[in-house]
Design a protein that fits this description.
CATH architecture of the largest domain: 3-Layer(aba) Sandwich
Structural class: mainly alpha
Number of strands: 5
Order of helices and strands: EHEHHEHHHHEHEHHHHH
Shape: elongated
Bound molecules: iron/sulfur cluster
Radius of gyration: 22 Å
Helix content: 40-55%
Number of helices: 13
Low-confidence stretches: none
Strand content: 5-15%
Number of domains: 2
CATH superfamily of the largest domain: HUPs
Length: 324
């Protein structure tokens, strides 16, 4: 029997190159080896979202990207977190065994307080408990994470362990599947690619739009004029060439250092490579977008399948806690 993996992402709408090269391609490759459950965590999004008017569109657009990128509903369960409300019940019950001190000490909670001091809501404190409920309600054994998410997973393991100690063996302690997600920098060349920062390149853009976006990227500041020699090692366009144009990487470094190639040429080449790599994805996406009911059906089927597992776990938890 395959081991079960759970992973989730906030509904951020159309995905960008950072999402694609990081989580998405990795999730697709895990589908044959594991029993995969992938979730759009809309309730988590409420901890930081004040305007929720685009939430439904964001879920739909993100799912289109996930499906077009190769997540296969025949192999994986794809669903929206709030469509399986059992997870909210488990969240409440796990809250009863989670010491408040653990949550207040989480570095991510402290960061969020700094970022949104005007909105330190209860959900921010309880976030790791909800994340634990997301994982353990499906008895997932493995969670693909980047190193920055390890403290969250450690918390999930600690909560699962505490529950098991108090009420008997119930949850597997989820193991991290450490993945070397590439940290894709945005067009500013400084910060991680992010929709919020506006430094992203959406994978669903048209070829022309992609060229336009790539042309706005910051490159080596030392190259003020076409004949200035460049430093590819500090240039984000060069890094992106590494993902989309690896066979020409060494030659480009030489051409950049000797000013044989200008930044406009280099960016044009990169945009062409991105466009040709994403062409099959864009074709699949356009075909899926032509039948919007399909995405809704996938999500409804995913929620049904997820709910079967969630209900069973919740009943077991309630019995062990003496609630039924
Ligand atoms: Fe960057 Fe390419 Fe310009 Fe060199 S030529 S600085 S690698 S964009």
């Amino acid at each position: 029997m395959k081991r079960r993996i759970f992973s989730g992402a906030r509904p951020t709408g159309r995905q960008h190159l950072g999402n694609y090269l990081g989580a998405l391609q990795n999730w697709v490759s895990l589908q044959d080896e594991y029993d995969c459950i992938y979730c759009s965590v809309d309730v988590h999004a409420l901890t930081t979202l004040e305007d929720t008017s685009s939430l439904q569109t964001d879920i739909y657009e993100m799912m289109l990207d996930w499906l077009a990128a190769g997540l296969d509903p025949q192999k994986s369960i794809l669903f929206v977190q709030s469509h399986v409300p059992e997870v909210m019940q488990l969240y409440t019950l796990l809250g009863m065994v989670t010491p408040l001190g653990w949550l207040l000490r989480m570095p991510t909670f402290k960061e969020k307080v700094k970022i949104q001091p005007y909105n330190v809501n209860y959900g921010l404190v309880g976030y790791p408990v909800l994340m634990t409920a997301d994982i353990v309600i499906y008895k997932a054994e493995v969670v693909p994470v980047g190193e920055d998410q390890l403290p969250h997973l450690e918390m999930a393991r600690a909560i699962a362990r505490r529950f098991n100690n108090l009420f008997g063996d119930t949850f597997p302690e989820p193991q991290a599947k450490l993945t070397s997600f590439p940290m894709v920098l945005g067009l500013d060349g400084k910060e991680k690619m992010s929709k919020q920062l506006g430094n992203d390149i959406e994978i669903a853009l048209s070829p022309e739009e992609t060229i336009e976006r790539v042309m706005t990227a910051v490159t080596d500041p030392a190259r003020q004029y076409r004949n200035d020699p460049g430093h590819p090692e500090i240039c984000n366009i060069y890094r992106l060439q590494g993902y989309f144009n690896p066979s020409q990487l060494d030659a480009l470094a030489v051409q950049c250092r000797s000013a044989e190639i200008g930044c406009v040429d280099c960016k044009t080449l990169l945009a062409q490579k991105i466009n040709s790599a994403l062409e099959p994805f864009r074709e699949r996406r356009a075909a899926l977008a032509a039948k919007p009911q399909y995405v809704k059906d996938v999500l409804a089927d995913g929620a049904n399948r997820a709910q079967v597992i969630a209900r069973e776990t919740l009943t077991e938890v309630k019995q062990k806690m003496g609630l039924i």
